[in-house]
Design a protein that fits this description.
Order of helices and strands: EEEEEHHHHEHEHEHEHEHEHHEHHHEHE
Number of helices: 15
Helix content: 25-40%
Number of strands: 14
Structural class: alpha/beta
């Protein structure tokens, strides 16, 4: 792509500043070789960019492209039956203990080919891309055996070849205890989960390691063994923590310098302090809160008090959060958890990038990847304001996508 100057736009850089959203009117962005060479007020533009090819944004709003930092978009089957069961009053834990939940997706995922899994994932990916998303984190965790976990991670990598989107993978072998290992969860961790992690890493399929620390999943002691194995491989960690109870998962994650701890509905102030000290991002997942009819909300005020960055994500999965709309998730974060619209947009941009360990996206600034979204709106707060409405005009990915 030739060097391009994007002009006639209002820019929300999302770079931390005294100006909300980093809002810059009458702005321009210079892009070369897929990176932002310069951005700012158009009248302050250096002369060297004046002769570049121009793309007129028509006065539209430009923000960083969005990032969905917690998804399970690769999976087999659906769990619509559980939707009905929850409406009849059954809890997430009751459904899981009766063979539903994560384990009900296991059989379908094991039985499907890589091609079928990819074909079923792409429509969900396409919806995210259509809402301005440029980075998607994809977890394994619905195979819970060596072959299927690796199959899922291969499919996740294939998404990046099939669509113009950056994929980050998380190995989630410690997601649930598969039925063939019932009452032998320690053996599953040592004989299946950790060896599979090593095999997937050897194949270049793993960017981070995740786990589910919960009464219906794995104990802190078991997760510690998985995290020890991850650190031995030089891989960062993250954790599903304090979603249904408080087992101290967030403190464990912080001890390992985790990129993020996710869900956190039952987190206490001690856990928040530990996350703050470790620089661990809180990934808030309102889709699961909404779908599970949860009543305990993440401690947003404590995150603000202790300066813990808050990211938001769809948690796109077949059971507890069957949504692939990050814009809806932003609205839910504001409505259900009282985030401000600026916090919601930061949560889907720079804080989401931090939760994935990415330093070159999530903001519009010199040197960053030229991933940005062009919106048919006047002010960035509108992104969290409307429900079921997509104002995306154009998504620029690595400087490409404008015509």
């Amino acid at each position: 792509m030739q060097p391009t100057l994007f002009t006639h736009l209002t820019l929300a850089t999302m770079v931390p500043s005294s100006t909300p959203y980093g809002l810059t009117p009458d702005a321009a962005i210079a892009v070369r070789d897929g990176r932002i060479a310069w951005c700012g007020i158009a009248q302050n533009m250096p002369d060297e960019y004046a002769t570049w090819a121009r793309a007129d944004m028509g006065g539209r709003l430009v923000t960083p492209a969005l990032l969905d930092c917690h998804t399970h978009v690769v999976h087999g089957g659906d769990r619509s039956l559980e939707f009905s069961q929850r409406l009849e009053g059954k809890s997430y834990e009751e459904i899981a203990r009766s063979g539903g939940g994560i384990l009900s997706t296991l059989t379908a995922t094991r039985n499907e080919s890589e091609a079928t899994l990819l074909a079923s994932a792409l429509p969900r990916v396409d919806q995210l891309i259509a809402e301005g998303v440029a980075v998607i984190e994809v977890k394994s965790g619905y195979g819970l055996d060596r072959d299927t976990e690796i199959k899922m991670l291969r499919v996740a990598r294939q998404i990046g070849g099939a669509r113009p989107v950056q994929i980050r993978t998380s190995f989630l072998g410690a997601h649930a205890v598969p039925p063939e290992w019932k009452d032998r969860s320690d053996a599953y961790i040592d004989e299946v989960c950790i060896p599979t992690l090593r095999a997937a890493h050897a194949e270049g399929l793993v960017d981070a390691v995740d786990g589910f620390c919960e009464g219906i999943a794995f104990s802190p002691e078991q997760i510690r063994r998985v995290f020890d194995a991850a650190h031995a491989l030089g891989l960062p960690v993250k954790l599903h923590a304090e979603q249904l109870s408080n087992l101290g998962g967030a403190c464990l994650a912080a001890e390992f310098g985790a990129l993020s701890a996710d869900h956190l509905e039952y987190l206490d102030e001690n856990g928040v302090r530990a996350m703050a000290a470790a620089g661990t991002v809180a990934v808030i997942l309102p889709g699961a809160f909404y779908t599970l009819h949860e009543t305990s909300a993440p401690p947003v005020e404590l995150f603000r008090k202790h300066g813990v960055p808050m990211a938001i994500a769809t948690d796109c999965n077949p059971g507890s959060s069957p949504t692939s709309s990050l814009l809806l998730t932003m609205n839910m974060a504001c409505t259900l958890f009282r985030l401000t619209p600026e916090e919601a947009l930061a949560g889907a941009t720079r804080h989401a990038a931090q939760a994935l360990g990415l330093a070159d996206c999530g903001m519009v600034a010199k040197g960053m990847r030229a991933d940005f979204a062009v919106w048919d709106i006047k002010h960035p707060r509108e992104l969290a304001y409307r429900i079921g409405f997509n104002p995306l005009f154009k998504r620029i990915f690595g400087g490409s996508g404008w015509n």
